[in-house]
Amino acid sequence: MTTTRKWLLKSRPNGPLKDSDFDLVSGPLPEVGDGQFLVKLTHFSFDPTQRGWLGGDTYLPAVPIGGVVRAGGIGEVVASRHPGFAVGEMVQGTFGWQEHALSEGMTETGPVTKLRPGITPEQALGVFGVTGLTAWFGLTEIGKPNAGDTVLVSGAAGATGSVVVQVAKALGCTVIGIAGGAEKCRWVVDTAGADACIDYRAGGVARAIREHAPKGVNVVFENVGGEILDAALANLALNARVVLCGGISSYNDTADNRTPGLNNYMNLTVMRGRMEGFIVLDFMRRYGEGVAALAGLMREGKLQTAEDVAHGFENCPATLRRLFEGKNFGKQLLKV
Ligand SMILES: NC(=O)c1ccc[n+]([C@@H]2O[C@H](COP(=O)([O-])OP(=O)(O)OC[C@H]3O[C@@H](n4cnc5c(N)ncnc54)[C@H](OP(=O)(O)O)[C@@H]3O)[C@@H](O)[C@H]2O)c1
After folding, report:
1. Tens-place pLDDT, residues 10-52
2. Which atom of ligand 1 has the smallest separation from the CA of 52?
């Protein structure tokens, strides 16, 4: 192969992502210089935060117009003039939506790492990647649940939420999930092991939380924001901790179509609660500890994972949209 393809950002998206926001371009395979290696991507991770990266500056600079769409991925080293990376090794990093990535060992979110033996690419991008680590550190370090606490998890059938549900159960908590649709809710209870799951599409979320947690919730793990967060805030127990992991319901907001603000935030005052955000990259130095803890739960049979694998490099934009349409079941990946 002498040519390779990449997806570039064509225009800054406004509202839901469209095919016309992206350009699929083809060009020659890059030459590998001294200190560089070439990765042939095999798997891509799809994460709601990519919508933020495309829209403007966040905790990382915005993807520039004409730049490769930022994304995590895994691939095989196919050429190398770098002493630390050999041909045939499987590596992981934020390589972006491109079939081949030229690297010197560093990406925008940290160093390129080698795949650990015994871990599949799906696990490395999911439960042992950013997703699982977000669940682990967000719950244990920000939510700080105690055994016997009631933990409420939105986006509970998603990649992050489903891990949070199971870690909270393993820590001895009562867990209430919130997810879209009866089928996802069934999975959250029957497979992930939550005590209950509320289908937010059926409405009445605040009332349903009150029914399942009449004494209030001690920890809220928030992935969705907007009305769902407001319903959670109406049901806090004394000294509740609200973990602001994400707010996917507002990621497609535009200047004239914004998710309504919160009505119940003063309940944090009444209940002496705390609401705190975090970015998983803050815990990068402790990733090994998180992976070990999650692997332990998996060995004990306390952690099930679901992966939703799309195929075909040309389907990257459509696959990213699935997250915002609630079409993914568990971790959304794409295999080239
Ligand atoms: N703070 C951090 O460092 C960090 C790191 C990773 C992820 N996150 C955040 O964690 C959250 C989950 O990410 P993930 O990668 O695990 O994705 P995910 O939960 O696997 O997928 C997204 C899910 O969000 C739900 N959703 C989409 N639009 C919605 C809406 N308008 N209202 C309610 N639910 C909606 C859908 O589930 P339903 O079918 O149930 O609606 C969809 O399946 C996101 O908010 C993300 O930004 C934060």
Report:
1. 999 999 999 999 999 999 999 999 999 999 999 999 999 999 9
2. 47
Query: Atom 38 of ligand 1 has which residue's CA nearest to it?
Result: 180
Residue 251's contacts (CB-CB under 8 Å, 6 or more residues apart) are 48, 51, 52, 55, 324
Please tell me the distance between residue 246's alpha carbon and the centre of ligand 1 in angstroms.
7
- Summarised one tens digit per residue, pLDDT across range 174-220 is 999 999 999 999 999 999 999 999 999 999 999 999 999 999 999 99
Architecture of the CATH domain 130-282+291-297: 3-Layer(aba) Sandwich (3.40)
DSSP string, 66-98: TSBPP--EEEEEEEE--TT--TT-EEEE---SB
- Going from the Cα of 326 to the center of ligand 1, the distance in angstroms, rounded, reads 9
From-to residues of CATH 3.90.180.10 in the chain: 3-123+306-335
